[in-house]
Amino acid sequence: MTITSPQGFRAAGVTAGLKASGKPDVALVVNDGPSDVAAAVFTTNRCKANPVLWSEQVMQGNKAKAVVLNSGGANCYTGPEGFQNTHASAELVADKLGIGAIDVVVCSTGLIGEQLQADKLMAGITDAAAGLSTAGGPAAAEAIMTTDTRSKEALREGGGWSIGGMAKGAGMLAPALATMLVVVTTDAQVDADTADRALRAATRVTFDRLDSDGCMSTNDTVLLMCSGASGVTPDEAEFTARLTELCHDLAQQLLGDAEGADHDIAIEVVNAATEDDAVEVGRAIARSNLFKTAVFGKDPNWGRILASVGTTNAAFEPGALDVAFNGVWICKDGQPGEPRDKVDLTERAVSVIVDLKAGEEKATIWTNDLTHAYVHENSAYST
Amino acid sequence: MTITSPQGFRAAGVTAGLKASGKPDVALVVNDGPSDVAAAVFTTNRCKANPVLWSEQVMQGNKAKAVVLNSGGANCYTGPEGFQNTHASAELVADKLGIGAIDVVVCSTGLIGEQLQADKLMAGITDAAAGLSTAGGPAAAEAIMTTDTRSKEALREGGGWSIGGMAKGAGMLAPALATMLVVVTTDAQVDADTADRALRAATRVTFDRLDSDGCMSTNDTVLLMCSGASGVTPDEAEFTARLTELCHDLAQQLLGDAEGADHDIAIEVVNAATEDDAVEVGRAIARSNLFKTAVFGKDPNWGRILASVGTTNAAFEPGALDVAFNGVWICKDGQPGEPRDKVDLTERAVSVIVDLKAGEEKATIWTNDLTHAYVHENSAYST
């Protein structure tokens, strides 16, 4: 269950010395075809890292033959020298593989505002190219970790084809400067338009709804590479469904490993007038530090939820709102409902349901609690 | 330097027993006139507390003869019974003072989702009415405290008139469920339109730009009462200037006492295309948990600032941004500038300047760092 499980892919993960810890920090994933169709979504942050600026150019052609990823440095806000390092990475990969640099996506993660050590990076890329194998997926997944405590991989099977994935980070396809990088591989035969539609559909309801700490990264990238090596062209709806399942699986792994978190919180907003309303309400709650600290304190503080709902433009009547924690409706019609001591928040998984009573749409946003460990990890990260 | 310093006002603060701590929890402020002109601004949260719903009705007439405030319970999300308690408070004050209930503003602060103990509250109001005096300002300021570690008062003098103020809370005229309540008194002769314009002008650049933790309260109220007892009608510009100074003073006292904060951070955004752009950028930075934890860790992490700027719609070029911490320009043109070890963040006061190089407008947003103590205080608050 890794990115080299689908046919047509080789990968490697090596130690280049970019990380002070001496752990693996350069990964390479190659699509040996026959197809080189690819799709990608990038951070919407306007201050983008150099690898994102480069990779957006690569993806103009809707194809990619390789992706090189490094941890130990985000190569962000590093100016022309930083862009040159990204470009040189792609050039070196292209040279080793006999392809064009414009076919090579580049991803970086780590501290921002510092130059990568170019000599170590280039040596690492050379090593990775020499070490490529169809068993290299797990090593690649390990090499992209930063503050992750474990590598994240997933696999879904179709009829004669499969989709593999790896991910790092603790955030959403926007949030968390603990950048999220995701590489998904498939041996299904998929054309460029289908790949793009399927990837956007899958990320919209998975990574896009993961909002660990509301902070948007400069480096987030989700890349889908399609080798076509299975020779099977799947039904688009089925392909999208399996891809969405895989992205959900990876997103939940990211949530479960979020920096310093004690709780994984699923905020389900139901009976909204529109899906956008449901997402807006869920995201407002997910970004309330007072709500998040309350969950850390095992306090089912529904008042802080209503206060967050009240900051949105969604359709609802304040006196009609219901809120449940772990299935106990402790707020009914904007007032105290069942006794709050019936709610047990000792488990890591927490369910919050907010009933807007304004329509029939719904959405789920996933977030984490705000803990002492979050403060510790993020106040000490660069020192 | 208190709300009873201007002529025409009496106040009291008493212990009604609403707080488990046994500290003072009911305050009453009376305007003896001759004028009863008043102005107010309330939270923009759509889920408003009962006292806000009531007081918005009172202020339709642009006048108020008294304000009764309680700590020990926000009377929010308490339904019709809660509204009845608010109404009964106003009725009792009116009865004791021989005025109409519709002339009585009501403010509450404390936990939300719980009914006030009406019998204790009513007994407290009776005591407060009996104890009104022209020396009662400091007692009133003390009785509205919740998690505040000290009471907040201020005074500004005009030519023959003055403005007094008291405040409680740790947040902004929006943020912080640690509700912000502010009562301002003046003996200047001011008409209703002038009072309203002056109060909105003053709060717009003071309380509105205090963003301690990005959470909008359900109870926030800023009330200005004008007795006219000095007999002096000030120039509107001068009155607005003194009122703005007073509000700034109180806002800085709130910032300095914010829950669990180690640092007070002034984020000044300069050379913006519009003032709105400057406010949007400042607020985005103030709401970044990663920036706020970095300051707690004494880390001048300008990368997290640029990442926040990148989430806004303000006019700027990513490669042109400059950032200074305490006067040291450690980011120039979107790249590393002066050495970061020249920045010393050991003092409580922190200055951040972001130069957008897109125009000539500017704005300052004040916030706090995100600390272990914040997490502790807000995870344990209701338990």
From TrEMBL, chains A, B:
One of its GO terms (molecular function) is L-glutamate N-acetyltransferase activity. The keyword Hydrolase does not apply. SUPFAM superfamilies: DmpA/ArgJ-like. It catalyses: L-glutamate + acetyl-CoA = N-acetyl-L-glutamate + CoA + H(+); N(2)-acetyl-L-ornithine + L-glutamate = N-acetyl-L-glutamate + L-ornithine. The record marks A178, T179 as: Cleavage. The active site is at T179. One of its GO terms (biological process) is L-arginine biosynthetic process. It holds the Pfam family ArgJ. Its main location: cytoplasm. Its EC number is 2.3.1.35, 2.3.1.1. InterPro entries: Arg_biosynth_ArgJ (IPR002813), ArgJ-like_dom_sf (IPR016117), ArgJ_beta_C (IPR042195). GO terms for cellular component: cytoplasm. Pathway: Amino-acid biosynthesis; L-arginine biosynthesis; N(2)-acetyl-L-ornithine from L-glutamate: step 1/4; Amino-acid biosynthesis; L-arginine biosynthesis; L-ornithine and N-acetyl-L-glutamate from L-glutamate and N(2)-acetyl-L-ornithine (cyclic): step 1/1. The record marks T109, G110 as: Involved in the stabilization of negative charge on the oxyanion by the formation of the oxyanion hole. Keywords: Acyltransferase, Amino-acid biosynthesis, Arginine biosynthesis, Autocatalytic cleavage, Cytoplasm, Multifunctional enzyme, Transferase. PANTHER family: ARGININE BIOSYNTHESIS BIFUNCTIONAL PROTEIN ARGJ, ARGININE BIOSYNTHESIS BIFUNCTIONAL PROTEIN ARGJ, MITOCHONDRIAL. Belongs to the ArgJ family. Catalyzes two activities which are involved in the cyclic version of arginine biosynthesis: the synthesis of N-acetylglutamate from glutamate and acetyl-CoA as the acetyl donor, and of ornithine by transacetylation between N(2)-acetylornithine and glutamate. Heterotetramer of two alpha and two beta chains. This is Arginine biosynthesis bifunctional protein ArgJ. It comes from Prauserella flavalba.
